[in-house]
Amino acid sequence: MTSDPLVIAGRTFGSRLVVGTGKYPSNTVMADAHVASGTEMVTVAVRRVNLTDKSKESLIDYIDRDRIFILPNTAGCYTADDAIRTARLGREVGLSNWVKLEVIGDERTLFPDNIALLEATRVLVSEGFVVLPYTNDDPIVCRKLEEAGAAAVMPLGAPIGSGLGIQNPNNIRIIKDQARVPVIVDAGVGTASDAAIAMELGADGVLMNTAIALAEDPVAMATAMKLAVEAGRLAYRAGRIPKRMHASASSPVDGRIASATAAAGSRAGA
Amino acid sequence: MDLIWSKILTIRLNGEPYDIAGPVSISALLAALNLDPRIVAVEHNVVVVKRQRYDDTIVNDGDEVEIVRFVGGG
For residue A164, what are the CA distances in angstroms to A90, A97, A103, A156? Predict the structure, then answer.
């Protein structure tokens, strides 16, 4: 297979796995997991500095910025205005104009408010941001986000942190089929097979945090995810066989030894 | 000492009241808070302040200032 990088807004990534930086047991484990995952892009959140406890280490010190691109998110924002403000602040901290745009609509599901998301996408695109919106697995919303100038669309596989896997594979396939920008399945992955399924469906990448960070061994899970994303991508490009209801013998039917009475049956086996 | 520089301002810093002698620049505020300007971003009255403007952006009594940084997230 030829080289197969992920390209978003003209920027090339050697890995199709985007990883978060939250919930790890320690910054050191996070850094090791990032290396094991092979990721070239990690998400970070933008939060108020804790003025009473400034002793905390800086997250940035544990991200290898020579290899890894930092993608600030607007997680926790419930209005377009807050998301826009957060994106502008993130741009100033990180000195890049990329943003993983989240506008959350509900605390329990963390499902996006797609109306506010679309509005915030339009504003940020007009300000020169490269906007990667986290959204539902809804092909219509994804199309509208793309029309609004999103550099990629990031439909969820399942609720954030749920680990339920890809709940609506067909929608992911439809979204990919119509999209002219990269499709990153963002959220819902629980284990390696979930990531492989997302890639086999044609997703251009997978973004995950909890599945790695809260695994019993985050570094081992990061390795598993790297392999799963690569395997799923290869399988997608290789072109899988069609599904069929009945068996199709792998061994030749001709030339079998058989008694005259059994020869009428077609029991070639595997 | 000039009177204007000895005034105690009460600003709203990250949502909480905060007293500081001023008027004070963003640069001086960050220094007083012992924060590295390279790893934070500052919003002054809901407008992001570019790093090169920290010296000449002055915080006045009653102003709102937000100082943020990157933390772990997904």
Answer: 30, 32, 21, 11
Residue in the block written with tokens 């002219």:
A180
pLDDT of B7 reads 86
Query: Locate tokens 């399942």: which residue?
Result: A158
Contact B22, B9 (CB under 8 A): yes
**Cα radius of gyration rounded to whole Å, chain A:** 22
pTM of the model as a whole: 0.91
Residue A52: strand, helix, or coil: coil
In A, minimum Cα distance to B71 occurs at A45
Q: Amino acid letter at A101?
A: L
Which residue does chain B place closest to A72, by CA atoms? B70
- Which pLDDT tens digit goes with each residue over A75-111? 999 999 999 999 999 999 988 999 999 999 999 999 9
Task: Name B66's bridge partners.
Answer: B43
Q: What is the DSSP string of A144-155?
A: HHHHTT-SSBEE
ipTM of the complex: 0.90
Q: How far apart are the first and last CA of chain B?
A: 50
To the query of whether residue A100 is one of the catalytic residues in this protein, the response is yes
Work out the end-to-end distance of chain A between its first and last CA atoms, rounded to an integer number of angstroms.
29
Residues 206-235 of A with CB under 8 A from B: 207-210
Give pLDDT tens digits for A213-235. Answer: 999 999 999 999 999 999 999 99
Q: Read off the amino acid at residue B2.
A: D
